[in-house]
Amino acid sequence: VRGKGAGGESFLAFIGSPGSASLPSTFSEGLKLDQSAGRAHLQDVFKRVFGISVVIFTSLQGVSAAQPERSVVQIYTFSQQPIWDAPWRFDSVRRSGGSGFVIKGKKIMTNAHVVSWARQLLVRRYQDPKPYVARVTYAAHDCDLAIIEPEDPSFFEGMEPLEIGDLPPVRSTVITYGYPAGGEQISYTRGVVSRIELQSYAHIGNRTYLAAQTDAAINPGNSGGPVIQDDKVVGVAFQGLSGLENAGFFITTTLVKHFLKDIQDNNYDGFPQVGVRIVTLQNPAYRRALKLPDNSLGARIDQILDVPTTRELLKVDDVLLRVGPYDIGSDGTILYEGNRVYLTAAFSEIQHGEKVPLKVWREGKELDISLPLYTYKKDLVEGNQYDVLPRYYVYGGLVFVPLSRDYLRTLGAGWGDPANAPLTYELFYRKHESPEKARPEPVLLASVLSHSVNANFGVRARALVDKINGIRIENLEDVVRAFALETGKDEHLIEFGADQTLEAINRKRADAAHAEILKTYGVPKDRRL
Amino acid sequence: MIRILLVAAIALCSTSAADSGFEELWERAVVTVEITRKQYDYLQPWNRRVDQLQKIGTIIGDKEILTTADQMSDQTLIRLQKGRGRWFEGEVAWLDYHANLAVITCREEKFWEGTKKVDLAKVTPRRGIAQVVRWRNGIIEFRNVDINRMVVKKGKLTFVDTLQIELDSKVEAVGWAEAIVQGDKLIAIASSKQNETITAIPSSFILTCLSDRKNSPYKGLGYFSFVWQTSENPDTLAYLGQQGEPHGVVVIEVHTNKVGSPLRPRDIILQIDGFDVDVQGDYKDPDYGNLLLENLASRSKRAGEKVKIKIVREGKELTVDYELPKAEYTVQLVPLATPDREPEYLVLGGLVFQPLTVPYLQSWGSSDWNRKAPFRLSYAAREEATAEKPSYVLLSLVLPDPINIGYQDLGYLIVERFNGKQVHTLQDIILAKEAQRDGFHLIEFLEGNSLHRIILDAAETEAATARVLERYGIQRDNVLNIPLPKTGKLASD
Q: B150: how many CB neighbours lie within 10 A of its CB?
């Protein structure tokens, strides 16, 4: 398949989380609605997350006598993920290692992917064999950052917090500090800032933010470690790129600062989304049709998502001329601290609920719009989800779960199998193409816990549920409600979506067998809603 | 008893094979068919090349050679060879792609000298040993194969389930209409081979089609355009009101077709033309035992004819007349094949538009395109055609030119509207060009994960098209298989 698009193709290798099967970011990108200018086919994201990775690049300026390594910590994570198609069960405990660093306020910053699904966290100081138990206080899965705190405050004795710096210039040298695999001691690597651009963040899978690329090797265990220049943290190492030599990525401090500001109210909201697809505006005819001068300014709004305030204030074919202090090029980029990056980088400076000033060209006139931005939750299921146990409902041995990217991942390589295409379409395309038929939370029959009451039930797995007892299933709660409904029939009727299959189950027998099935299969509760 | 019968059958076959009369008959009845045909690159539809292949034909009547329709489309030359003699020019006398059958003839009397015609078995044997007969490099081959079973499944060139015969064999490179014979009877012609299983078109099916050939007009292959599910779950039948021992299958989807359908979702089908349907959807065929009910659409009936279907609807039994729709590629949203048609395309200011077809998708792999082609396009092949959505047109690629700056990377986008008019065919686009506003063409794509709309300079389009054709060495700006209506009225208006 021919790769396409102004956005460039990237194949992200993530370092760490197990079972991170890849979904094409085609799907995720669509939801981002941001920089996919004219992109017909988006990239496959390959993630290969090693536990944690820190990449350090020694700057030419060198490390000062401040000895930042004293503030870099090693993190051991014992994590356990749920099994998405048997959501009451957990995978085996997985041990992984990563890095972190001490920041102001007796906190340790690391990557969210280092600490997600943690059952226990242990941290170790520089050259100190003692492990300290720690806990996660904030995990920002969208930008892959987290704050953890050791239970014993004496952990911080003799440690200086590292200061957060600014965006390092391209070509400048940085050092990454961390505890990659291959040894127990701290490791330093030096590299140049190769470029600064928007990158797909593999941990969440469907968000794109600013990231810096460096030529230092990123290895398992490096994640969460600081990238340092002039004694200041200029980034957090987080992911690599499979198939590309000497390319590691670190989260820029723009995002780090946004995260720290966000949690000042003791609550993490996340990065707001504009909810528009902005595309290039370089065709002379299109520019003329919009009565725009033939210059290199302005990017066009091609599509608007169901974000009420955005729908109210912006229109399709509005041309964005300026966002905040940045002029927008006709290729959809802004000049951001000396780097040409997609304009969505400007939106990531805004906090949830804040307004961003926009200069917009509409019907031949310039308009000033103050657009409030909010976090967008409706596409959570299209990304990887963490730390919230999956929802499910079991009735008569039929296991119902919401459709999500996490569920698709359980199909392994088979997610791309044509047999699973209806699930893929429902999750990623339906709401765009036929919003009137889209459901807030599509539900599927994930599996059947075999028992004589359901032995003849013809559908056994991976089937989208359309109706139960005549009730259209919009979310998991509807399943519970529909089975409780008194229909006057001896059977419950389940109608499946993709091919209209009908299956019934005897109500009395299913009710009677319910407890026994749960017991047989070790399901502690029939639901998690 | 069974053992004795088997021994007898084997003995019979080996006697026949040893018989020189047997060999002589088939040497005279089986010929080599060489086909020269155009092949297209659907990703650059103006490109074509010419391919040549050889298959087998069997003389079954006066100046009539039976072969498969596979690879016969877009043929430019057919040649025939008896044994190792000279080549004669042949021509198609009759052909049905859905049935995967063709009859070829030869005008030169000389060709027919010394040939023999053979009969097709009225009932295709479903047990025992048969021989695959073919010419290879001027040498006749007789290879034993085991008849495995009769099965109803999709034919090689159709979306319709038809009767087929499966045979076990290690013989290589079978599937090119080789004669499968028992004694002096042709029992099937091979259509494909996967692993060690040969799939072949059985003689009884061929005879039904040949008999229809005498009709004017030819009726063609009929099929059931409804979808059913098995009734192995008694709870489902109980819900639908069936009493007693479960039997029949449940209709779950009724596809619209030209002749309409008396069936409704949730009807339970009990009998078709007097044959009881079991819970797995099989009926007991008097010749072949248990077969999928789909076979009752082509066992003895043809398109346009009626079958009687006994159903249970809302607890009551009734019998309906079901008129069999004709198998046609055009009923599909994404047609499985477009035989004997050059690939359609339209170049407009460097934008290339094409209908979405399976041959186009097969550019990503002839058998695994549904994994490899862009997801949205391969998903389209699963969708049903409707009156509002009979076919899809793509912006398939952009040939860069100053007029389309900013769009060069576009491709694989399903076109929804052109200048505000719905687009189902390339003709729709040509007619919609007239509806330009203020000197611009507005092209809108299916709302989804990618770009939704673009604008093109209408006044410049013609000059740009000429420039693009010249620069990229394309002879014509369009190939349309259905001419534009003379009224200039849009079909979708």
A: 23
**What is the distance in angstroms between the Cα of B405 and the nearest Cα belonging to chain A?**
5
**Closest chain B C-alpha to A464 CA, distance in angstroms:** 15
Angstrom distance (rounded) from CA A329 to CA B452: 20
| A223 part of the active site | yes
| C-alpha distances out from residue A435 to A28, A41, A427, A439, B335, Å | 18, 22, 12, 8, 27
Find, among A196, A138, A198, the residue nearest to A166 by Cα: A196
Q: Is the peptide bond before A168 cis (omega within 30 degrees of 0)?
A: no
Residue-wise pLDDT tens digits, B218-237: 999 999 999 999 999 999 98
Contact B229 A458 (CB under 8 A): yes
pTM: predicted TM-score of the whole model, two decimal places: 0.88
Please say if A113 is a catalytic residue: yes
- Residues from chain B that touch A433, judged by Cβ atoms under 8 A, are 446-448
| A424 touches B: beta carbon within 8 Å | yes
Phi-psi region of B439 (alpha: psi -120 to 50; beta: other; left: phi over 0): left
| Rg (chain A; Cα; Å) | 25
DSSP secondary structure letter of residue A351: P
pLDDT at A29 over 80: no
Give CA separation, A133 vs A113, A150, A386, in Å: 18, 6, 21
H/E element, B369: helix B369-372
How many other CB atoms are found less than 10 A from the CB of residue B127?
12
Residue A193: other Cβ atoms inside 10 A: 26
Question: How far is Cα B452 from Cα A325, in angstroms, rounded to an integer?
Answer: 28
The per-residue pLDDT for range A123-148, each reduced to its tens digit, is 999 999 999 999 999 999 999 999 99
Predicted local distance difference test score (pLDDT) of residue A33: 27
Q: Is the minimum CB–CB distance between B411 and chain A shorter than 8 Å?
A: yes
Could you give the CA distance from residue A333 to residue A345 in angstroms, rounded to a whole number? 9
Angle subtended by helix axes B2-18 and B20-29, to nearest 10: 70
pLDDT at B484: 61
State whether residue B243 sits within 8 Å of chain A by CB.
no
In this complex, which of A316, A428, A504 lies closest to B236 when CB atoms are compared? A504
| DSSP string across A154-223 | GGGTT-PPPEE--PPPTT-EEEEEE--TT-SS-EEEEEEEEEEEEEE-TTTSS-EEEEEEESS---TTBT
Tens digit of each residue's pLDDT (9 = 90 or more) over B422-435:
999 999 999 999 99
